[in-house]
Amino acid sequence: MAADILLYAAHRVPVGGDQDQHVELAPDLAIRFNRTYGQTFVVPELHRGPATGRVRDLLTPTAKMSESDPDEAGGVLRMLDSPEVLRRRVLRVVTDCDGEVRRDEAAKPGVTNLLEILGVCSGTDPADAAARYTSYGDLKTNTADAVVTLLEPAQRRYAELAANPGGVDTLAALTPSSSAIVRVLQCVAATGLLWVVNSTKRATSTVTSGAPRGKSRSMPANRYRP
Hints:
Elements: H1 2-7, E1 12-14, H2 20-37, E2 45-47, H3 83-91, H4 109-122, H5 126-130, H6 136-162, H7 165-173, H8 177-191, H9 193-209
Parallel strand pairs: 1-2
Helix pairs in contact: 3-6, 4-6
């Protein structure tokens, strides 16, 4: 993850709470490389959402929601799940039995998870959202609606692209991969590796061309220094 961040020159990286270490590693690497070899990488900064850094499993709210769970896992919401599946899973969220809607991660992890998902999807503060509800049913329904509304544009765009594979190939040809290649070459040049590669190629070519047919001699690269 840190390599991808640096390769594509990301300035701000949205991240969940369990990914902090990757984003923290990326600026450290960028600073050290730039200090040693010259300005090459953008130094990225972590950007965590104000409401939540980690979405929890809908059925086990003390654990995080994991993309590695199977597709049929009832506690996971996926971007391409149908609206019906999204609604069904949110409506089945595990809560508790006292019926009070408030944000309390220790005592009410399931309700807190719903409030934070609702807050992220609707742009509202989870604590303010809690004050508007007197029942879990309404909270679940509105959270399901907010999730479906948030994902609908992405799902619609995915369907458009999936229906036009030729267009996807065209878009793929225009992706920032070329800038990533440039970044790699900048790194190679900054560290002097490009000179070593070229020198080694020239040395190998020269020695091979002077060898008897069917035989090649190798020369150590360190004989070809500036």
